[in-house]
Structure formats: structure tokens, C-alpha cells
Amino acid sequence: MSFRGKDVLSILDFTRNDLERLFRIASSKFEGDELKGRVVALAFFEPSTRTRLSFETATLRLGGGYIGFDAVQGTSIAKGETFSDTIRMLDAYADVIVVRHSLEGAAKLAAELADAPVINAGDGSKRHPTQAMIDLYTIWREKRGIDDLVYGVLGDLRYGRASGSFLRALNLYSPKKVYLIAPESLRPKEELLDTLKMPWEFADLEEVLPELDVLYVTRIQKERFPDPAEYERVKGSYRIDAALLKNAKESMIILHPLPRVDEIALDVDSTPHARYFKQASYGVPVRMALLREVVP
Amino acid sequence: MSEELVVRRISNGTVIDHIPAGRALKVLRILGITGEEGYMVSMVMNVYSKKLGKKDIVKVEGRELSSEEVNKIALVAPSATINIVRDYEVIEKRKVELPERIEGIVRCVNPKCVTNAPREAVRPSFRVISRKPLKLVCEYCGEYLTEEEVIAQLAGT
User: Fold this and answer.
1) pLDDT score of B72
2) Chain A contact probe: residue of B141, B143, B144, B149 with most A CBs at under 10 A
3) Does the distance separating the beta carbons of A190 and B141 come in below 8 Å?
4) Confidence (pTM)
5) How far apart are CA A91 and CA A67, in angstroms?
6) CA-CA distances (angstroms) from residue A284 to A29, A161, A180, A278, B13?
7) What is the set of domains in chain B, with CATH numbers?
8) pLDDT by residue (tens digit) across A205-230?
9) A133 lies in the same domain as A119
10) Which residues of A touch B (CB under 8 A)?
11) Domain coverage including residue A256
């Protein structure tokens, strides 16, 4: 399937073949000027570091230019302009619109309003398809395949958009098993659990750690918590350090969409398990491949 | 007691029969019938029914409701039957059928859903993923909407 001109709203808009084509492009160290003369709109209604900077870098590396904002201060939204009107305006200026927003479904709405393709760079607490692509790409590169592995997904599985997108993305593959490791209040909603097609169960980290091939860790995000006291109560209870990892397979890799706070101790960084910085570095080639394929 | 004693027959229009008892007002609400349209609308509630024990009936004189309009009432009245009447004769009788998509009748329960943002160019829309019990999923944010939530919203609570 060609992605040309298509919206990228959810990881499930893609098939396994689509993704693998994207991964091959991303790993081919391609350089080019496919975006020469093109304008990418980066509409970040919510703050972001990695996602925004990697989209900017990907655009520049493909010879394109970008416009946009990374906070609503300084834009007309602060004066009361609606999201819809802002998107209509960007649609008139740019060849593709990359949207990050705190409201769920914002990217779908943008896609309905704009003729230009819309790429969801994270909306609300459920979808973050380009992050999921990077996560899968990292596993594809580092483990030479995504199927038949045992996964642990740890942290905030309820309010974290990266973990939700990652779990949905695994539906496209055949994991041997997925362990969901989260405090009860941060377990995924039934809306997500109902969609999981692979064998999964809730588990304790220490119990399942020796089985894992991939441990996907997410931050417990304070801003997603309805009750700050609840945040304080659970934040320290899911922490990885080098001592704990003695029980892990030597080949197990640890991913994290970043930013991390204290869920992965600094002493893990120098272990062979740590792949989260590599994962972050893959943000650029994967987004380059995506922009190259999507921009009309 | 026969319904005939309560509400007279209509000459032309639509009779919505077999509405679960007590839900006729919700049916009118979904149909957007407020009384200001000028049609003669009659409604009986809690009349005896062989099939349902008790039922409600709505009659709209002078207006034949389309399937598309009427199917939306399946949200609250899945048992309802529609009779199209011309010259006092029922010329068409059909059951309501819940459409696969519901647009603009109920709202998403997720406060962070874009369909709940004020002044945005969007209407709430849902896909029906289960009919019995009724379960909808928001097409924007993916949140479920249960039968109880649908009924509560349409009751205006």
C-alpha cells in the first residue's frame, strides 16, 4: 500500500508489510531531498522535546522546511482561536501537518478538516503511532525480529500514550507472550485490553523478569493523573536498576520512550540491556522514512 | 384496555409501537420532535401489551419517518416497530434496526475527547460494537459508551 497523501492517525492504519517497508527504508541510511520545496507544519499544542525535534531534524535532513509552534502561548489559540480554525489555516500553508494535542481524537479531527495529510504525533493518552513505529523498529533492528518474543510492558499503562500505542502495535505481530506490569490503578482500560490479540497477563516484574526478551518501560506521568496523591503513592514502586537485572536474560533489551524520571536507574545505562538512547536516535530515520512516504 | 380508547387512529403518518414502557419521551427526543414542528403528535405510555407487558406508543400525524431517522431510536427502543399509515391503512410495517454508526445523538463520556471540546468543528460519533447489551465506541477517542450511559444521557440526567 502506498502511504502517499495518507493520514497517519493510529498504528493500526498500517499493516505489518507497510511497517516493514518503512523499516527497510529507515535502515537504508538514505539521504535525499525528497522534501525540497516542501513545508511541514509542526502543530504542537502540547509540549514535546524528542518528537518535535526529531520531526524537525527529519524534515531538514530531507531538504524540507518547517513552520509551527510548540506551545499555544504566542499563537492565536491563546486569544481563543479554535483548534479547528488553526488546522484549516495550517492546511493552507503546508504540505503535511504533524499534530500533537492533549485532547483524544484531535488528530482525527484535524485529518477531517485538512486536505493535507495529518500525522498524529500523540493525541491524548491513547495514540502515538510514530512512537510505536520507532519502538517496533528498535526491536526489529536489535532483536532481528518482532515475533515470538516475550515482552514485559511496565509502568503507566493507563494514561501513557506510548505504552498503549506499543501494545496496539504488537497486535500486528505474534508475540509469544506479553506481561503487563503495572499497579492496579494504572492498568490499561478495558477498551485497550479488549483489542489485544496476543496472549497476555498481568504480572510482577521480579517473577517474570527471567523470561523477558524485551522490557518496555514507561514513565508514570504526573500530568495524566487525576489525583496527585495517587501519583506520589505509586511512582517509586516500579523501578529498574542494575542489581535487579542480574536475573534477566543476557540478551534482554530495555526500551523506554523517554523522558525517564527515576523508573530506570542511571546504572542501567551502561549495561548491555539499555537500548533506550538508541531507540531515541531511531526517531529521526523512522520519521524521515515516514515523511518521505507520506508527503504528496 | 385497548389503545384505541386512549388515542385515536391516525389517517396518515407514522406509528411507533412496542416502545419499552416509559421511553416514549426519549424516543421523541431522539427523533428531534419537540411539538413545535406543527405535526399532530400523540403519545401513550404504559399501555397493556401482549408482547412486552407494558409499552409506549408514539403517533406522528402527517409525517412518514424514514428508516434512517427511525433507526436511531433503537438506542432506547430496540423492540419498537414502525407502521407507516396512509388513509388509515398500514402500508408498511418494519422493525427498527440499530445503525452501525450513531452520530450526534449521544456524547462521549471521556472529558478529554475532542468531541467534548467547545466550539470545535466536530460531532460525536460512535460505532456500535455490541447490540445486546448495547455498547458503542467513540470514533474519535476509542472510549466505550454503555447502554446505561446512553439511557442516562437521553433521559437528560
Assistant:
1) 85
2) B141
3) no
4) 0.89
5) 12
6) 11, 20, 28, 11, 63
7) 3-95 (3.30.70.140), 101-154 (2.30.30.20)
8) 999 999 999 999 998 777 667 788 88
9) no
10) 82-84, 101-106, 108-109, 112-113, 123-126, 189-191
11) 129-281
